[in-house]
Amino acid sequence: MVLRGYQRLQEDAVDGLPGGVRCYQVLSTVIHHELPSQQAIGAHLAIDRTVMTYLLDGMVTATLVERVPDPADRRARKIVATAEGVAVLARYEARVAAVEQAILGGLEGADAAQLGSLLGRLASSVHRADPTASPCEAVESLDR
């Protein structure tokens, strides 16, 4: 129930981004992490390369990111956020933070902080179990 409620509220919070939640995740990753390529971003977020291409095409059209030649490899393209992309992410991060506060609103401050910490540790554990798998595959690998 919590996951479904969170997903619904998050989808509403990122309404207007081309590609919705996936766009938000990619834009956040581009801005907050120094990943060398489109492929690395896709691997980090467990997004299929063909889906990633279409997603980035929409983000380029919306002037959120641009593909620039990688100075270390002329054949490769690096994905960088535009000034518009940075401003848009800041607005949407505030909206997503409000969703997270709303979801945790039924808990008192210390309980909400503890749940956030526990979920973060659990997510890290799942990711370590299989860092290249989709989230569902990573969870399944914990049972093996």
Description:
The protein is mainly alpha-helical and 144 residues long. It has 2 domains: 2-106, Winged helix-like DNA-binding domain superfamily/Winged helix DNA-binding domain (Arc Repressor Mutant, subunit A, Orthogonal Bundle); 108-143, no CATH class. Helix content is 67%, strand content 10%. The chain has 7 helices and 2 strands. It has helices spanning 2-13, 20-32, 38-45, 49-61, 83-103, 109-129, 135-142; strands at 65-70, 73-81. A two-stranded antiparallel sheet has the order 1-2. The longest helix is centred in the middle third of the chain and has 21 residues, at 83-103.
Name the CATH architecture of the largest domain.
Answer: Orthogonal Bundle
Average of the residue pLDDT scores: 87
Whole-number radius of gyration?
17 Å
Name of the top-level CATH class of the largest domain: Mainly Alpha
Q: What's the SSE pattern?
A: HHHHEEHHH
Which term fits the overall shape?
A: globular
**Lateral arrangement of strands in the main beta sheet:** 1-2
Characterize the biggest β-sheet: 2 strands, antiparallel
Number of structural domains: 2
Q: How helix-rich are the residues, as a percent range?
A: 55-70%
The CATH superfamily of the largest domain turns out to be Winged helix-like DNA-binding domain superfamily/Winged helix DNA-binding domain
